[in-house]
Amino acid sequence: MPTSYRRFSLRRRFVTSGHRPGCGILRAINRQPHHVTLPPTNQREIVLDIVDNLKQVSDWTLKGFQERKEHITLFLKLTRKDVKQLTRFPLTAAFEPKFQKFCKVYDKLETEYQKGITDHRVWAGELKSAAAELSKHATLA
User: Fold this and answer.
1) What does the pLDDT look like over 52-101, one tens digit per residue?
2) What's the pLDDT tens digit per position in 103-121?
3) Residue 95 per-residue DSSP state
């Protein structure tokens, strides 16, 4: 049977049975996730997870801090957990100084968040630059 005929036949079956074309497919997609996110397992994955978290927090800060405050708090906690997890690994000699510098910057930014951010735009920019700097050195981890 030609492919075009099968598509028409399938579409006709949905239309005649009172369903919208493709709605069964949409239900199946909504029931099953597209991909499963596993927790990071190695140093490079942890570093990239930290970078992604910081970029997301920065975007939320710029686009609607009050509406996303709970998400920001959660992502900062997850980032802190990742940083602690990364310190348990033996770090390479090339990556360790960069990571220590990142930790100082992140501690400062996290403290500023807890005390109350004075300028959201500056804080978000510092987060993004810390994420960019860390992502540059992710291959060293």
Assistant:
1) 999 999 999 999 999 999 999 999 999 999 999 999 988 889 999 999 99
2) 999 999 999 999 999 999 9
3) T
- The Cα-based distances of 33 to 15, 38, 62, 71 in angstroms read 27, 13, 29, 21
Q: Considering its fold, how many domains does the chain have in total?
A: 2
CATH of the domain at 63: 1.20.120
Place of tokens 């709605």: 23
| 47-83 burial: b if 16+ Cβ within 10 Å, else e | bbbbbebbbbbbebbeeeeeebeeebeebbeebeebb
Provide the residue range defining the domain that includes 113.
43-140
pTM score: 0.70
With beta carbons less than 8 A apart as the criterion, state whether 55 and 132 touch: no
